[in-house]
Batch of 2 targets.
Target 1
Amino acid sequence: IPYSLLPERVTAEGAGCKVVYVCRDPKDAFVSTWMFANKMVEAAHVLGYWEASRRQPEKVLFLRYEEMLRDPVGNVRKLAEFMGCAFSVEEEAAGVAEEVVELCSMDTLKNMEVNKNGTQNHVRNEAFFRKGVAGDWSNHMTPEMAARLDKIVEDALRGSGFAFGATAESA
């Protein structure tokens, strides 16, 4: 947490609090974070939900973020149906699914007053919103890095029937 977000009862002069901050070389921090995230994939985070959705499709809906971006209205309809509250003919005619997509859009959420100025546990809400786009990794990784990451993920998912580059039909 940034120093500026520590509570005043900690940072105020005369507060009697001492702070110890341990910094880490960003390259090592990146690798450590990556290894943790990779273990999450291996430790059934993605695979557990993928397998559960295949075993019990009536109980677990598995959605892909990139597919949600490509077809937000179709995915809102799919979600509504899964939750047992599919849109009625009248709601469809009135454009309710499209309204839900607009209300939940990244732009709408980012521009809500609470998300521009609110905080959660001393972290500004705006920190939870970035771009919300697919493929931004290409602005931060070399093709070689991406290929290496793809190989690691492919190895972790081997035999599961799931692949991140897969089409919606395989989901």
Target 2
Amino acid sequence: MLSNPAEYDLAEELSSRSLGDGANVGLWPGMTIYRYVEPTVPKWDEIQSLSVCIVAQGRKAVTADGHHYVYDRYQYLVLRSNLHFRSQILDATPDEPFLAFVLQIDPAVVRKVSAEIVGRRGSSDQAPAPTEGQDQGVVSELDDELMSAVLRFLRSLDADSDRRVLTPLYLQELVYRILQRDRFSKLLLIAGQQDDGNSVAAALNYVNVHLSEPLTVDILAGQVNLSPSAFSRRFREVTGRSPYQFVKETRLERARELLLERRLGVGDISVAVGYASQSHFTKEFRARFGTTPGEYADADGLSCDLRAAR
């Protein structure tokens, strides 16, 4: 637990880096800052890499594989990769918006840091073997050391030289502080179960950060130094989908979120999620959601979400 929560300003740090309501990406690969001024209806989402979500203000609920997690200010949730889950913002107001950030972490970083810890503690501290029915995540409390590491990580993103030199080190420190907590063995277990491979995880991060840009198989394969055929085969083995299918689904899901935020018109959203043709965007959106983007954004579209959540 934090000894003096008043001295920390994590909410202020996240608010200053948020361009608006909803998901804010681009500050660091795999990092998203979330800001909401009112509660949301439950919605389904998916993560591709081991992820940590830290709440600075407000309260959130996540349901994954039958397990329900509720966490709020100065708590964090760790979820394994390739997980389909339902999330809902429970507490948020214009005066005190919900503020949190999600950081996808390469399992190799966790294993590297944990190996150093195990090396000092001895092999008896290694994580137990996986067992059936275990939770897919962990909720824990922030303490002074972890909060300090989080703030150093965020503040290092402001300057290019700090990003190159300090941010990777602070990321490792953040992982180290989490592993030092009482859930050491559980997080090691989650990290040890990651079998998606660094190449696919890196490609997924690239897609999320560059969603408005062209994203062909050749481009994604080039990002991870694989041939297009080898990359496509590995990607399908890990995700169960082709790179093309994944990119299309990610674009349409992001478009749906932007429509519900009501800050951009359909044409601007089409461009923001990488469609060169608005008519093509409308056709694919209708095929996935059963309605046009414009219809989905109106009151009828919102009420459909509300009815589905009941």
